[in-house]
Write a structure and sequence with these properties.
InterPro entries: V-ATPase_116kDa_su, V-type_ATPase_116kDa_su_euka
Distance between the termini: 31 Å
Shape: flat
Function: Essential component of the vacuolar proton pump (V-ATPase), a multimeric enzyme that catalyzes the translocation of protons across the membranes. Required for assembly and activity of the V-ATPase.
Largest sheet: 5 strands, antiparallel
GO biological process, one term: vacuolar acidification
Strand content: 5-15%
Family: Belongs to the V-ATPase 116 kDa subunit family.
Organism: Ceratopteris richardii
Number of helices: 23
């Protein structure tokens, strides 16, 4: 069974000729079964041999990302498929990326300048239109007033109304006291218009005239490039000081000022020139955009291929930096871990690399003997991978220890279903997960959100959870809390109309055999329903818990057997299995005997007085002959098991350590040839044999206390199966009785529709979402704490091979 124990690993040394190193790293990256060790950990990234190549690839990746950003900005989707069989030289690709970056940067900068000019001219056009309308309306009013004045007065008027509106009037004799009326036009953000008006009024003490006109649509601001709502303003003022104040206020508010001629003819001429210029700029901008889109369309077909090539090249050079160079600088030395089953594939890849690079020397592949703990590697698929992730979230398995994921595949969804048992809710979960499975290819190629990604990665876990929920729903005989007689008729019948509220009378047993499968539907709705289901589910939770804890202890036995640790077998496994089963295994037997015999014995009383009064008479709580003497024997075994776990192991380890120390006091003389090797071997053994009796004794004492107390607390913890199952059943019953049936009784279509909608939302939101999450987390806790702590060390490190398939994830 590949998943029960991790793959056997070897520490391997590779001596690779420099000329074939690049090909070797490429083929090993495609294979993805070799984990390199960093032999240059004492060097900084800049001191390594291939630092320049890594930096070069990083710069190329930056250019590729720049092109991707331009594609996103232009709304062009890159081709998803990577062109196969298309070989591209890295130097040529670097030159091409540089040329494309420079060309697109120039196009973007020119486009930005043109767009800024276009935005400014567009604003200028709007100012000419809006301000021109104001001057035209003012001039029209002046003509009308002039005609009225001529008709009502005989005094000749020397001045013509056609003269400029703001003509200087040199009426004052002193030139220093002459004042000129001026104006400024421009645009300002609509959100700043009111504050702009107030500041102008205060700064000039009301000696101004302000005219504002809102634009019909938002315009693009030349400075920021963002579209915003703006207002055209026209400010009249008198004097140079007022002009300076108005100019500073405009700058402070970020207003764009534009020149405006007083003469109507010049206004029309300028408006024509601006319109013509806008048309020219629009044509130029469109031509630039088309040219950029053509370039990007050509880039889109190959961008994914370029990205893959550069990322692989960077990964190759980054891995080469982990290798050490021998003194001749002709070979690279690599060390790393690989599965024993993959050694032939790795050697084939290295031979192919030497052949393709025309190397005269083949790569040397040799296994190194080491005491270092190898990494843990399990071969998983899309089905078992999610269950392995559940176990790995607690801790990575130690090298070749028993893997809980093998049993988690069944026990996890089953314990979930014990708490979630309702075949109606299970069908809803099944339909939801079937949608994910049908669209598996579609979703696997998409980038999903956090919640959707978790649901999709655990789709097979949810599938088993739904199937087991349907199974336990049939056992509980609940379909949205409604019982059905699917497996034949009930074993009980109502003798009168009061049987639904009766405790024992009113129900008559009509057949000797019980209901074929699951809970008899007659229990639902009776006054004894809660009492019966509480008893059933509580006892069932204890049975399941004791069974799973026994499985965990037996897995510790298989671990000890595999690693040939006889101390753990005799002084850990044996006393643990005796202690657990002398108490809670015995309780499980009593539960089964009581079910089979129909006894009315009180198991609480039996277990309590087993400790308080072991020799006392059981009276009416005796389930079988000799029960009292069996209880005394089991209690004695449980008491003996505690020092059995605590004392022998540290004492035996101390004895072995003393014996080994005495054995190494004298040794044979060595010949000079092997002296250094033997000395190193002895140093390793001495380091390994360091032993502190006090530390070992304290460790064993903690382990003993943890197990003894945990045997009680863990068994009690499994009662959560009963509690959550009961809560799920009662919530489902409340929603059905108090929402659906209650509204159905009103015989009103609107009330019924509202009731059905509330029932659906309550079922989906509370029972199918919140209860699913709650049951999932509780099943997770039972596996991590109650099950895995019996045997699982979880202090290993995961096998992380050098692979091109993980480049995008990194």
């Amino acid at each position: 069974m590949d998943l029960f124990r991790s793959e056997e690993m070897n520490l391997v040394q590779l001596i690779i000729p420099v000329e074939s190193a690049h090909h070797a790293m490429t083929y090993l990256g495609e294979l993805g079964l070799f984990q390199f060790k960093d032999l240059n950990s004492d060097k900084s990234p800049f001191q390594r041999t291939y630092a320049k190549q890594v930096k070069r690839c990083g710069e190329m990746l930056r250019k590729v990302q720049f092109l991707k950003d331009q594609l996103v900005k232009a709304g062009i989707s890159p081709s998803k498929g990577i062109s196969a069989g298309k070989e591209i030289d890295l130097d040529e690709l670097e030159v091409k990326l540089t040329e494309l970056e420079i060309e697109l940067s120039n196009i973007n900068s020119s486009s930005d300048v043109l767009l800024r000019s276009y935005s400014e001219l567009l604003e200028f056009q709007l100012v000419l239109n809006k301000a021109g309308m104001f001057f035209y309306s003012a001039q029209s009013k002046a003509h009308a007033q002039h005609r009225e004045f001529e008709e009502g007065s005989s005094i000749p008027i020397a001045e013509s109304i056609e003269s400029p509106l703001l003509l200087e009037q040199e009426l004052l004799s002193e030139p220093s006291k002459q004042s000129r009326l001026g104006f400024i036009t421009g645009l300002i953000a609509k959100s700043k218009a009111s504050a702009f008006e107030r500041i102008l009024f205060r700064a000039t003490r009301g000696n101004l005239f302000l005219k504002q006109a809102e634009l019909d649509a938002p315009v693009q601001d030349p400075a920021t490039g963002e579209k915003m709502e703006k207002v055209v303003f026209l400010v009249f003022f008198s004097g140079e000081r007022a002009k300076q104040k108005v100019m500073k206020i405009c700058e402070a508010f970020g207003a764009n000022k534009y020149p405006f001629p007083e003469d109507a003819g010049k206004q029309a001429q300028m408006l024509d020139e601006v319109s013509a210029r806008l048309v020219e700029l629009k044509t130029t901008i469109d031509a630039g955009d088309r040219h950029r889109d053509n370039i990007l369309s050509a880039v889109a077909t190959d961008i994914e291929l370029w990205d893959s090539i550069v990322k692989k090249e960077k990964a190759v050079n980054h891995t080469l930096n982990m290798l050490s160079i021998d003194v001749t600088r002709k070979c690279l030395v690599a060390e790393g871990w690989c599965p024993v089953s993959a050694e032939v594939q790795i050697q084939d890849a290295l031979e192919r690399a030497a052949s393709d690079s025309n190397s005269q020397v083949v790569t040397i592949f040799q296994v190194i003997k080491t005491k270092e703990l190898p990494p843990t590697y399990f071969k998983t698929n899309k089905f078992t991978g999610a269950f392995q992730e559940i176990v790995d979230a607690y801790g990575i398995a130690r090298y070749q220890e028993a893997n809980p994921a093998v049993f988690t595949v069944i026990t996890f969804p089953f314990l979930f279903a014990v708490m979630f048992g309702d075949w109606g809710h299970g069908i809803c979960l099944f339909l939801a997960v079937m949608w994910l499975l049908i669209n598996e290819k579609k979703y696997s190629s998409q980038k999903l959100g956090d919640i959707m990604s978790m649901a999709f990665s655990g789709r097979y876990v949810i599938l088993l959870m739904s199937l087991f929920s349907i199974y336990t729903g049939f056992i509980y005989n609940e379909f949205f809390s409604v019982p059905f007689a699917l497996f034949g008729s009930s074993a009980y019948q109502c003798s009168d109309s009061t049987c639904s509220t009766a405790y024992t009378t009113g129900l008559v047993k009509t057949q000797s055999a019980p209901y074929i499968f699951g809970v008899d539907p007659v229990w639902h709705g009776s006054s004894t329903e809660l009492t019966f289901l509480n008893s059933l589910k509580m006892k069932m939770s204890i049975l399941l818990g004791v069974a799973q804890m026994n499985l965990g202890i037996f897995l510790s036995f298989f671990n000890a057997l595999f690693f040939k640790n006889d101390l753990n077998i005799w002084y850990q496994f044996v006393p643990q299995i005796i202690f657990l089963n002398a108490l809670f295994g015995y309780l499980s037997i009593l539960i089964i005997v009581k079910w089979c015999t129909g006894s009315t014995a009180d198991l609480y009383h039996v277990m309590i007085y087993m400790f308080l009064s072991p020799t006392g008479d059981l009276e009416g709580n005796q389930l079988f002959p000799g029960q009292k003497y069996l209880q005394i024997i089991l209690l004695l075994l449980a008491v003996i098991a505690i020092p059995w776990m605590l004392l022998p192991k540290p004492l035996i380890l101390r004895s072995r350590h003393i014996k080994n120390s005495q054995g190494h006091a004298y040794s044979m003389l060595r010949d000079s040839e092997h002296e250094a090797e033997d000395l190193n071997h002895e140093v390793d053994e001495a380091e390994e044999e360091e032993f502190e009796f006090s530390e070992e004794f304290v460790h064993q004492m903690i382990h003993t206390i943890e197990f003894v107390l945990g045997a009680v607390s863990n068994t009690a913890s499994y009662l959560r199966l009963w509690a959550l199952s009961l809560a799920h059943s009662e919530l489902s019953s409340v929603f059905y009785d108090k929402v659906l049936l209650l509204t159905w009784g009103f015989q009103n279509v609107i009330i019924i529709i509202v009731g059905v909608i509330i029932f659906i939302f309550a079922t989906v939101g509370v029972l199918l979402c919140m209860e699913t999450l709650s049951a999932f987390l509780h099943a997770l806790r039972l596996h991590w704490v109650e099950f895995q702590n019996k045997f699982y060390e979880g202090d290993g490190h995961k096998f992380a091979p050098y692979s091109f398939s993980t480049i995008d994830e990194e």
